[in-house]
Amino acid sequence: MIRIGANPIGWSNDDMPELGGHIPLEQCLTEAKSVGFEGMELGNKFPRDAALLRPILAAHDLDLVSGWYSTFLIERSPEEELTAARAHIDLLKAMGCAVLIAAECTRTVHGTRGAPLSTRPVMTDAEWDRFNAGLTRFAELVAAEGLTLVYHHHMGTVVQTEAEIDRMMAGTGPAVKLLLDTGHATWGGADPAALARRYRDRIAHIHAKDVRPAVKAESEKGDWSFLESVVAGVYTVPGDGCVDYVSVLREVPDYAGWIVIEAEQDPEKAIPIVYAKLGYDNLVRFIAEAGLKR
Fold first, then answer.
1. Cα–Cα distance between 27 and 36 in angstroms, integer?
2. Confidence (pLDDT) at 19
3. Beta partners for 181?
4. On the CB side of 167, how many CA atoms lie within 13 Å of its CA?
5. Torsion sign over Cα 214, 220, 221, 224
6. What DSSP line would sit under 196-249, residue for residue?
7. Integer Cα distance of 95 and 115 in angstroms
8. What is the C-alpha separation between 119 and 105, in angstroms, rounded?
9. What pLDDT sits at residue 186?
């Protein structure tokens, strides 16, 4: 069964808190539910105590989908990573989540507005070996906790390009699943439909965001940072950019799980509820056109 969720980054940005910093959590949840979303991923305004978070989401009849976790497996062992992730894992388990979203953030530049994407980190061969082995072991430890690790390839990090996604997938064990992010794949130079076809058996979570080609081209020409590009509008909701969602979804005919709209924009330029509804309605239509069942 496919369920449609949202990430609150469309209302309030985690990497750049001043974007949407004035928008209360109550507004975000009320608007998300009114649009039709069934669940939400974590954001910086969510309490990280299940006893506090559960009644807040229940009041809006929303489930917790999951939440981002920054790994540093180039620098620390899987066992150290598990210790660092303990509170996050316990929250996800208490809230009934199925997946843990992980992204390697050693030396990442995606949260630094003054750091051009050209300065992002690139792993050495030795670091690749350490990272892939560590990610596999960490995923196995997470699985023992009852959660599936889904890896989030992301602009500005060590796993950004198609070649890097392929190297990670080839070098990790079956406990590591892929979070297919249509926006990061497209901006990173990959065809998300091709990735979906190649890894359909290991895709366990999907982030749906679209890309505005003109802003992408301007960002690349000017060597902008990730956050500068976001503010300029490189990302938008499904159906408002260049991603062919029907083609992507047709490559995962047996997919069951969450498809989460995660389209960070400046809420002063892109009114959150307007874009949330646009993205939701488009995604529902794309899912139906692709022949997937909800």
1. 14
2. 83
3. 207
4. 17
5. positive
6. HHHTTTTEEEEEE-EE-HHHHHHHHHHT-BHHHHHHHT-EE-TTSSS--HHHHH
7. 36
8. 14
9. 98
CA distance 117 to 263: 19
pLDDT at 293: 87
Residue of 156, 154, 148, 157 lying closest to 180 (CA atoms): 154
Question: Count of residues for the chain?
Answer: 294
Residue 126 token pair: 């030795």
Q: Rounded distance, CA 73 to CA 71, Å? A: 6
| Domains of the chain, earliest start first | 2-289 (3.20.20.150)
**CA–CA dist 12, 35 (Å, integer):** 17
Which residue, 170, 184, 149, is CA-closest to 69? 149
The structure tokens 């070649």 sit at 163
User: Which candidate, 249, 258, 256, places its Cα nearest to that of 285?
Assistant: 249
**Alpha carbons within 13 A on the beta-carbon side of 282:** 21
Round to whole Å and give the CA distance between 236 and 212: 7
The token duo for 62 is 């929303």
Low-confidence spans in the chain with pLDDT less than 50: none
The Cα 211–Cα 237 span in angstroms is: 8
Model confidence pLDDT, tens digit, residues 129-140? 999 999 999 999
Which single residue is written with the structure tokens 């091709």? 194
Residue 6 C-alpha from the chain's centroid = 10
